[in-house]
Amino acid sequence: MTNETKIDQKVLCRHCGDPCDDESIHIADHIFCCYGCRAVSELLDGTNLSTYYQETSEQNKSISDLKSERKFGFLADEKVQEQVLKYHDDELSVVKFDLPGIHCSSCIFLLEHLPKLEGAIIRSEVNFIRKEITITFHHKEKSLKDIAILLAQLGYPPEINLNSSDQTKRRLSKNQIGTKIAVAGFCFGNAMLMSMPEYLDTNFLLTARFKELFGWISLGMALPIVFYSGRDYFVSAWKSLMFGNIHIDVPVALGIATLFGRSVFEILTQTGGGYVDSLAGLVFFLLIGKWYQSKTYQALSFERDYKSYFPVSVICLNEGKEGNVLLKDLKAGDVVIIHNDELIPADGEIVDGNAIIDYSFVTGESAPVEKSLGDRVFGGGRQKGSQLTVRLDQSVNNSELTQLWNQEEKEGDGKNFKSLIDQISKYFTAAVILIAIGTGIYWQVTDPSIIWNSVTAVLIVACPCALALTLPFAHGHAMRILGENGLYLKNAGVIETLSKVKSIIFDKTGTLTSNESEQVTFVGEALNEGEQVQIASILTNSAHPLSRLALEAIQATEKKPVSEYEEVLGKGMRGNIDGVEIKAGSAEWIGVETVEVMNESRVYIQIDAQFRGYFACQSAYRKGAMDMLNNVRSQFSMHLLSGDNDSERKHLEPYFKHLSFNQKPMDKRAYLENIYEPSLMIGDGLNDAGALQVADVGIAVSEDIHRFSPACDSIISSKSLSKIPSIMNFSKGVRTIIILAMIISLLYNVVGLSFAMAGQLTPLVSAILMPISSISVVGFVTLMVAWRGRLLR
Amino acid sequence: MSVIILLIGCSLAVALLFLGAYLWAARSGQYDDDYTPSIRMLFDDELNQDSCQTPPKTSRKERPA
Q1: Is the dihedral of CA B55, B58, B62, B64 positive or negative?
Q2: A731: three-class secondary structure by DSSP
Q3: Burial label, A58 (beta-carbon count in 10 A; 0-12, 13-18, 19+)
Q4: What is the pTM of this model?
Q5: Which one is the CATH code of A1-158: 3.30.70.100, 3.40.47.10, 3.40.980.10, 3.90.950.10?
Q6: Which of residues 59-88 of A touch B (CB under 8 A)?
Q7: Interface ipTM
Q8: A447-476 pLDDT, tens per residue?
Q9: Beta carbons of A178 and B65 less than 8 Å apart
Q10: Is A198 left (phi over 0), alpha (psi -120 to 50) or beta?
Q11: Which CATH architecture has domain A519-618?
């Protein structure tokens, strides 16, 4: 019999109609995509909210209670509360939690109705985009810990990170650019109004008194534009000059300064209306470009280090008493208790209990390691089994495995390549200055009276507004298109680096193979329902990864009590259910012949002394992974870095030029450091973190983009991995589009320059040329990128 | 013609008012979340009338749907 735990991709949630992923929830014949949907559906079925609140069975609930109790125990600590709470007084507290589990509008419904579930909560508000919830509650009735546990029970365990100060900083800068755009837009509109008479006719109904008034108002508009909205361009131009590294902001700042200087001069001497409208327009468009490019994925984090994966606190044994200790306060000599499925925080020695430790998290090695009393264990391993007591001999930061990602990131990540626009800017700036000098010399000889007019006009018209807008709009738009296709970039600049990549380095476990969609099939005589229940009941008792996998393959409706249960580490388990002896485990344990099959692990089952068959667990390659490799193979130099042994070598050899197995995280990092051409690393876990950082572009593969990813340049949803070849082509296409757009904008500059050098640049010409060039270039870039992006689908 | 001065004064005042209104809205966080409120307004208040403030903690069995 085959057990189908895997859900067809096209199964739709009963409530919201969204497609359900692998983690969907089954209740009777209904399938839901998330807890919110299930809850709301139950509501609609006519029950009151309380049914949902207590949906789990008595026994399960108490277990999960205990777990959450441990997990969030640290929230009782006052120091922690101070950091987590946004506000608190004698009565009320306000807390903001990250809830990666928020999925659809039903989740919002459920979470915003928390006050109905829990009287102590006064108000709860969800920010869907950020996947955050803000809860106001009476902390005398319910503690912060209780609130966190309540959320965890509802299926939204809060993710608490004590050093999340960077987020507020990011938000602040986003707000600032909005304000700057608002000010610039205000000045732009009003300056144009003031300049309108100038456009029409210099003598149009205007007496000198009005001219003067309009001039002064325009000047008033120019001040905030230059000194507030446009300030960043001066700062960045100054910095770039200091470092001798000319980029696009230098000619921009030069243009702004000249426009401003000449306008002030004309208005003060009453020789003309000035160019304040062009100045305001320039800054306004530039800022919009900046804002468009800086829009990033707010709910994703690209900066996580190992600390985000570790628990915030662990349970420490101090003079026979258990207590929560914050991770950063742990020191060598502390004795900590590790429960099933918890991470070992630092290196140490086992003082009590047996361990089955899964290091796949840090080393990429997928097989768990067994350890017993007195053995050394390393920080970052995950315990799979019973309770474990460990005496630490290192603090968290000094642990052998975690040290790898404590290494400071190399200076100026991704700066190995100068962007196209910066390469051009150097020549552009030089050319502009030469032309300005040339014009000056020419008019000095022929007609010195208009020398300043024409020189400033050259500097004004050369201001690379269209050029400066090309990149933000092309990259910003390309980034959105990639986002729609499942690749989420940290910033838009990654696209350009991506287009230069020459070699691609793949990790195997978790990247080419899938962690979760392991195919589990039962081989042997089909099991009847009673037998399935029996097997499920016994497998529940074991924390071994294979037992868990097999358990998932069984659809058992209930669990029965097990008597005379016994588990032998590394062999299997036995127990009596309804007087029938059930054995599950290795071939040796059951007493049948051992067969080694590549890429497959087995759990043998014996019922009532009779061999019934085995569960075959295969680690499967991702759908389309091989086709993808085939497609990129011819264009790039291909490397494989695997933490596993080389049992798969034959399988993979045709696709890769260089294959390396048994690679420790350190080796992977070193390997990447020795690749001198532009490299793209595609990996998943923390074991690839070092390599992802060293690579020019690091893409982390993730089943759930909101939940898990090491520090990287971009995150790709595992479903989109097969799109890598077309994504690479797309990035190259975007580069071509940018080059085309640059040529167009340079042509505009040439046209403008011919006006300027002839001394013909009136405010009207400038006011028309500037917006037209900017809008046409932006339009061209956006349309072309959108058109190219359609090929991705 | 001097009415133009008055008109310009008025238009600038109105424009400044709107600029101020935007800045206030942005500072007070009204643009922080542009998605959730659109969903929140669709929630029906009636549903909550019959739900209880403190749920009874008796039956915990899964309700067959």
Answers
A1: negative
A2: helix
A3: exposed
A4: 0.71
A5: 3.30.70.100
A6: 61
A7: 0.71
A8: 888 788 788 888 888 778 888 888 888 888
A9: no
A10: alpha
A11: 3-Layer(aba) Sandwich (3.40)
